[in-house]
Description:
Layout: E1 36-44, E2 47-52, E3 55-61, E4 75-80, E5 90-95, E6 101-104, E7 114-118, E8 122-128, H1 136-149, E9 152-158, H2 166-172, E10 179-181, H3 184-189, H4 191-200, E11 204-208, H5 215-222, E12 248-251, E13 258-261, H6 305-310, H7 316-326
Parallel strand pairs: 3-5, 8-9, 8-11, 9-10, 11-13
Antiparallel strand pairs: 1-2, 1-4, 2-3, 4-5, 6-7, 12-13
Helix pairs in contact: 4-5
Amino acid sequence: MRRYGKHTDEDDVRVRPNRKGNRPRTNIRPKHEDAADGFVLTIDRGRLTVLVEDRTITAMKARELGRKAVVVGDQVSVVGDLSGAKDTLARIVRVQDRSSVLRRTADDDDPYERVVVANADQLAIVTALADPEPRPRLIDRCLVAAYDGGLEPLLVLTKCDLAPAGPLLETYEPLGVPYVVTSREELADGEAAERVRERLKDRVTAFVGHSGVGKTTLVNALVPERKRATGRVNAVTGRGRHTTTSALALPLPGGSGWVIDTPGVRSFGLNHIDPSRVIHAFPDLEPGTEGCPRACSHDEKDCALDQWVTDGHADPARLYSLRRLLATRERREGD
């Protein structure tokens, strides 16, 4: 049966009104040429605090970004109300290309990759020498993530008044990772903060560490005007309590750099890491891989690196360190 009769033309077609009253969808997206540049400071329940020039604004992610995640440290383009006044809301319409990315998974079996921080120059791996005991495997995992993501690692050892730093530093000496050793007394009088601040000058540094190592205490000493809550180590389990629940970027005094405090971690999965990329963090060993068999894991019988080291081209301790890092995905955090 014909609905409009035998002879219809375009004038006979009935167009249903749009009951929602909104505009029809289009694939043409606005260019937002007047968008302002911003720096994401923190995220809380879908609302992002963004630094635009000299003021902070609250923004949300535009629908046109789709599933593209926006994380602390991102350089973004923002439109809307940029006054920073109370109860105003802007929109993030673009995320600029990232120079570095710190990523992790919940564990080594988790396929879901989480971006923790973007555009950081440096990763400060904070670990206590005692109370709680250091966890070298977690340090190794953070190193692998730093090398893979384009961040330079910095080892920050706290509570040296409770245990000596020498044994742990000896483990990482072949890697050439820079380090700072601090005590609780030095943090209290500001001396330790000054030494750490020298390592952070003119850089964006993300701080990572498991709960209870004094990470947030150190951040509070570095940026005293922005105190964050701190906790204590459980005397029974030897573990700290999570007090930092979201990443937060803070400017160092005098505008000499940024620190990004991240929530304490109890695991650092590396499911997203391609082991073949770890060798790039060892420029003294990389030329020796030219003789390796195809798809060499660099930890097998025919690996050319063994002969490269035997011939005196590199320190054997460096090859041991490489293989230790490559093996981190196969180990549990407490091993």
